[in-house]
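DATA SHEET
Item: assembly model
Revision: 1
Owner: S.N.
Input lines:
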Amino acid sequence: MKVTFKVNGKSETVDVAADTPLLWVLRDTLGMTGTKFGCGKALCGACTVHLSGNAVRSCQVQIGSLNGADVTTIEGLGGNHKVQRAWEALDVPQCGYCQPGQMMSASALLASNKNPSDSDINAAMSGNICRCGTYPRIRAAIKAAAKMS
Amino acid sequence: MEKIVKNEARRDFLKVSGTVAGGLALGFYLPQSRQAQAADGGSPNAWVRIGGDNSVTIMCARSEMGQDVYTSMPMLVAEELEVDLNRVNVEFAPPAEVYINSLLGGQLTGGSTAVRDGWEKLRKAGASARMMLVAAAADNWGVDASQCTVSDGVISGPGGKKATYGSVAAKAAGMEVPKEVPLKPASQFKYVGNVKQKRLDTAAKVRGTAGFGVDTRIPGMKYAAVAMAPMMGGKLISYNDSRAKNFPGVHAVVQYSRGVAVVADDWWTAKKAVATLDPRWDGGPNANLDMTGLWAGIEEASNKPGAVFRESGDANQGLANAAKMITATYRLPFQSHSPMEPQNSVADVRADKAVIITPTQFQQLIPHVVAGATGLTPEQVEVQTTFLGGGFGRRVEVDYAIDAAEISKAAGVPVKMVWSREDDMTHDSYRPAGMYKFTAGVDAKGKLQALKFHSTSPSISSRLFPSIVKDGIDPFAVEGIDNFPYMADAGMSFSYQMHDTGVQVGYWRGVSHNLNAVALEAFIDELAVNAGVDPIQYRIDMLDMGSTKHQWSGLSAGVPVGARMKRVLEETKKITKFGKKMPAGKGQGVAVMEGYNSVVAIVAEVTVSSTYDVSLDKVTAVVDGGTLVHPDQALAQIQSCINMGQGVALYSEITVKNGIVEQNNFDGYRVARMNETPEIDVHFIKSDSVPGGLGEPATAVVQPAIANAIFAACGKRVRTLPMTPEHIAAA
Ligand code: FES
Ligand code: FES
């Protein structure tokens, strides 16, 4: 099935099976490997991207539902997004594998909540697993990013 | 068409690795491509390559799996090379003899050894390269090298002469290698110990551009998904590829040693096609394995005497004379590594050459096992190491690289084999389960007089490195207790009973510290409670200040640790106000351990609800890790260990039913998440001793600290982990 949608502001047309998860379209069809595969079951958040600005698990979104959609991935965060700056300032990543997903969840949180409390952070971030245990730094980086312009 | 499978014996990499352990039969080589690169500019030695454009590349010979070797190891080279660490290129080293980890005897990342092994070696490599570069410039100028100075890659000589490293690199490569290589004193370190130093890989990791194994793409590459026997030791009998072959985008359906693979244009197509294969399996020797039988087997084995690995005095007599005997048995479960990046490998196997690009902790082994699986020679196998999306010991195993090579060979194309999370979690080499029995004799005041310890667990090394297992003792099975730091004057006896359960076991972050020290430090708390003495003071009072050393586990310095432990415990008591009054339902617990030549004490503070749900509120760690090479990342490792230890202490376990692992994703295997993360407070003892390993020890220490805190909070002594509400209620 042919689907035309926007990824990071650029129009893309792909021709793949309609049930293909967005995750694999991004990674294998479009070659954008910043978005990670961790569980395939909405359990880990490694595949998190933005769909119309909201954080979604791309392993659960079928490409067939995305005609005309607007998707943002870690590559589209721009490199200078306040979340990325805060992550760098605090050296958040260890292995780094979960971090694109963490940053996509965090940037969606900050877009809707300028000053998240600890419990707001828990609610928004507990779907993202980090096996390296970078949670304390993620929390601190979200708070630091909230103070950046 | 229905395919009936003839089972060919899988080429057994264990035999090959046995030769690795013996240090035999290994050819080492620098792949062609590296030699070619070396010609451009110059390489004073295997660690440093300097381009004609003055670019500096430092080889990183350990795998970056989060623990910061990508920064801390080049840092040691750059410190002496006198170049700007923040501008160097870092490249993962290919397998070669020069990159062997002398603490492990192989080019292997594990055992918290990277910085300890590199501490002198890498600084000397940097200094030696610098001296050769200076010698080359001095020779050009006709002056003595002692008249030259170096700053940030520029050599200055008498009369204002200047030469960049790049301009003399080719010549330097031919200069004599210096025999005496003096190193700077710590007071002159620019990078080592610098609290402001950042990781060199963060910029890529926050932009999604760091190349993990699973991100590799090479020309002509197809994607492979697999079906492997769900039961441990199971074998493929038959499968039906008639539907899979006709999927649009499917290139091939191939059988390989472990199962069947579908090779397709993208992974999702391959995965969907795998689901149609209808494979039939012979359950093999473990087809009836379940936890009841498995624990009964451990229990039975635990009645055998085992092999004594440490003893002093007469423990039996001491127990007979004791005012009171205290016994306890701890049961610890299997655990999975489950790094966030599922196992995967790219393999391009041709008639005369193979390229393997993979996230591995053991690149040195791969040419040998891939040669064995493909009929090539090890010299024909090139290995490239990517970033690792976590490792924790899982990627010491090379199974997935072999699988990908077999699939590439059978399909006749380069493939990227990617496991699903389910494949990964059910085909791990698990942290061993085990039973840990203590019998202590104490005097009327509760002071320890005599101790017998008997552990029963599978041996990891007897599969992976059989040559290091001697007289029934696997050095990696007695860690965390063969360095028992306390005194029991009448006598002590420590024994280990090896017992294979049928579940394949592997090295898991902290290995047997995670078992022995967890049980031990919880049991010590039982003794302190019996004595009615503050548990920190109880430990301090019985520390052996003289002779404590490792008898078997060789990854620590083997020096007395009593004084270091005392200092750490005293500091811990002060910082945590240990023993302060806690509100109802809350408790503090302490534990201490020496491992990897670091001493770690942890105090956990928990809240236990009326239904025995545990919230881990705060964790304080006091760490003597010797010199901290990269302080902020030393801190990161302690934070990381605490998180992983929290998960195995409270939430997760791997169980088996009908030979099949029951947990196959993060719903069944629960790991610690953001909302469960405690406040973490880490203090490092100032030290100018050699660096200790920090990637593992705290993983073990936090677990008994939590167990002891739970006891303090609710009076339940949990001896079966994980400490779930069910296990606490049953305690
Ligand atoms: S891969 Fe999508 S949530 Fe884990
Ligand atoms: S940084 Fe390794 S999984 Fe999060």
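QC remark: The pocket of FE2/S2 (inorganic) cluster (ligand 2) is lined by residues A 93-99, 130-132, 134; B 66, 340, 390 (CB under 6 Å).
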